[in-house]
Prior knowledge:
Elements: H1 2-6, H2 8-25, H3 28-63, H4 68-97, H5 128-145, H6 148-187
Helix pairs in contact: 2-6, 3-5, 3-6
Amino acid sequence: MKKLFSSLPFRLILGIIIGILCGLVFPESVMKVIVTLQYIMGQLITFCVPLIIIGFIAPSITKLGGNASRLLGVAVVIAYVSSICAAFMSTVAGYALIPHLSIDTNVAGLRDLPGVVFELNIPQIMSVMSALVLSILLGLAATWTKSQKTIDILAEFQNIVLDIVSKIIIPLLPFYIATTFCNLSYEGSITR
Length: 192
């Protein structure tokens, strides 16, 4: 039973349920706090995304060794082709399915969320694409030059980022999901 309560999928589902129920009963004064908490947690999660990219991709490339260039080239081609195929298939599915669905585009009757009490802007240190390119170049360059110090630093950085993810981001996710669904429920997006 303890294993069930400690699993992330269970906590996420519990966060969804609690968030929906709270959104139905919370008054506007409490929702101001909820909206503010969701905003701050979203800022923190968004801030960590480039760190996660650099912390996991660059050290992984260095672990590929001498074949890093070839393997990375193949991986990039596979990712690019699969992205194009996915976009094409979703376009075809969208044009084939959406006209036959009865989707109510009228959003009248939804409540407005209260404003954020205070904003705590936490900008990313770089964009996601910049982090991706930096991590690829850093990993390849460290592999090509056989710079053991840089490889060790990247491995240490990976451990640091792993601790940030496991001790901050993952425990925060159920609360972030709960606040998101609380907001949706309060607006009426889920119940109407």
